[in-house]
Design brief:
mainly alpha, 2 helices, elongated
Length: 68
């Protein structure tokens, strides 16, 4: 989420345009205009992790992603 806020700040400063999730409308920056994309394509998202990662949270997180 922090990266998306940074992107919106750059747009607010006039540095360009950005594609962001609808949820970012809540940011309500005065210099930013949000427009819906008509017939916008779905963007596939993937998870990537190292097989060497021994963080105990990883297994639970992966379990949660499989539930959807």
């Amino acid at each position: 989420m922090q990266l998306q806020q940074t992107v919106l700040s750059l747009v607010d400063e006039g540095a360009g345009i950005a594609l962001v999730p609808t949820s970012m409308r809540k940011a309500q920056l005065a210099g930013v205009v949000f427009r819906r994309l008509v017939d916008a394509p779905l963007i596939e998202q993937v998870l990537v992790w190292s097989t060497a990662n021994r963080n105990p949270c990883l297994a639970r997180f992966l379990d949660l992603t499989q539930a959807r």
